[in-house]
Automatic annotation (TrEMBL):
Gene3D superfamilies: 2-enoyl-CoA Hydratase, Chain A, domain 1 (3.90.226.10), Lyase 2-enoyl-coa Hydratase, Chain A, domain 2 (1.10.12.10). The keyword Isomerase applies. Pathway: Lipid metabolism; fatty acid beta-oxidation. This is ClpP/crotonase. Pfam families: ECH_1. The lineage of its organism: Eukaryota, Fungi, Dikarya, Basidiomycota, Agaricomycotina.
Length: 285
C-alpha cells in the first residue's frame, strides 16, 4: 500500500508496521521545482485524509550526500509575473504563487500524523523550510545547514522565518544565520534548539534513529497522538487560557475513546495493545 503513494520525486515505503518512510528522491540534489513541491504537498494532504492506517512518518532523503539542495532556481521562471506591466496585478499574482508554495511545504505541519525529519549532509535554503514544518527534527552529525536566501537576494518566504523564532530558543543565533546566510553545523543547530537530537554518522544512522522513534510513536493510541499534536500546534499561536479551553473541548470527545480500556486490558494481560485505524479506508488503490 505505501508504495502506491510514491511519485516521480518521492519514494514511500512502510519499513515498520504503521510507519511510512517518505524519501525526497530527485537527483542530483533534491532541488525543488513546481512539480516537486506540488507532489510533496499533495502527498501529505493525502496521508492527512487517512486513506491508509499510518501513525508516524519519517521524512528523509534517498541521496547519500544531502537532504535538500534548495529550490531549483530555473523554476522561478514559472512565477506569474512575466509580461505583466502593472506592478499591482503582478504583485497579487505573485503573492498567490507564494501562498501555494507555502501551503505545499507546510503540509506536514497541518497533517495530523507526527512527522519526523531525519536529515544528513547538505541542508540548504528550502531544506530548512521543509524541516521547520515537521514535528521532530533529527540530524546526522555530518549535516551542514544554510538559510541561504539572503545570499541570493531575498528573504526566506516559505516557512523558515515564521517557524524558527518560535521553535528555537536562541533568537540571536536565528538572526545571525538568517541575515548572513553563513553555514552552521549540527551542534549549532542543536544549541539553537532547531533539532532535538544529533545522531553520530550519516544517512543510515539518522534514518535508523528516526525510525526507532517512529515505531514507539506508532505503538501509542492514535487517538491520543493525534490529539497531542493538535493541542501542541494550537498552543503555539494561542494563550495558555485559550489552549486550556481548546484542550477541554477536544478531550471532552477524545476521552470517550475505546483506546483507553484497550490499553488497560493489555496492561493487565501484559501484552501490546492493538488499536483500530483512525478511520475506515476510503482508498480505491
Amino acid at each position: 500500500m505505501a508504495s502506491t503513494f510514491s511519485t516521480n520525486n518521492l519514494l514511500v515505503s512502510e519499513p515498520i508496521p504503521y510507519v511510512y518512510h517518505v524519501q525526497l528522491s530527485k537527483k542530483p540534489v533534491n532541488a525543488f521545482d513546481l512539480q516537486f513541491w506540488t507532489e510533496y504537498g499533495q502527498l501529505f494532504d493525502r496521508l492527512s485524509r487517512r486513506e491508509t492506517d499510518v501513525r508516524a512518518i519519517v521524512l528523509s532523503s534517498s541521496i547519500p550526500k544531502l537532504f535538500c539542495g534548495g529550490i531549483d532556481l530555473s523554476s522561478l521562471s514559472s512565477a506569474p509575473t512575466s509580461g505583466e506591466a502593472d506592478g499591482a496585478r503582478s504583485g497579487v499574482a505573485l503573492a498567490q504563487f507564494i501562498r501555494e508554495f507555502q501551503s505545499s511545504i507546510g503540509a506536514p505541519a497541518r497533517c495530523p500524523i507526527p512527522v519526523i525529519a531525519a536529515v544528513h549532509g547538505l541542508v540548504l535554503g528550502l531544506g530548512i523550510d521543509i524541516m521547520c514544518a515537521c514535528d521532530i527534527r533529527y540530524s546526522a552529525s555530518n549535516a551542514s545547514f544554510c538559510i541561504k536566501e539572503t545570499e541570493v537576494g531575498l528573504a526566506a518566504d516559505i516557512g523558515t522565518l515564521a517557524f524558527l523564532p518560535k521553535v528555537c530558543g536562541n533568537l540571536s543565533l536565528v538572526r545571525e544565520y538568517a541575515y548572513s546566510s553563513l553555514p552552521f553545523d549540527a551542534k549549532t543547530a542543536e544549541r539553537m534548539g532547531f533539532i532535538s537530537r544529533t545522531v553520530e554518522g550519516g544517512m543510515e544512522e539518522v534514518v535508523g534513529a528516526a525510525l526507532k522513534l517512529a515505531e514507539v510513536i506508532a505503538s501509542r493510541s492514535p487517538v491520543a497522538v493525534n490529539g497531542t499534536k493538535q493541542i501542541i500546534s494550537h498552543a503555539i499561536d494561542h494563550s495558555i487560557r485559550d489552549n486550556l479551553e481548546y484542550t477541554a473541548v477536544w478531550n471532552s470527545v477524545a476521552l470517550q475513546t475505546n483506546d483507553m480500556p484497550i490499553i488497560f486490558a493489555a496492561m493487565k494481560e501484559k501484552k501490546k495493545p492493538e488499536f483500530r485505524p483512525m478511520r475506515k479506508s476510503t482508498s480505491k488503490l
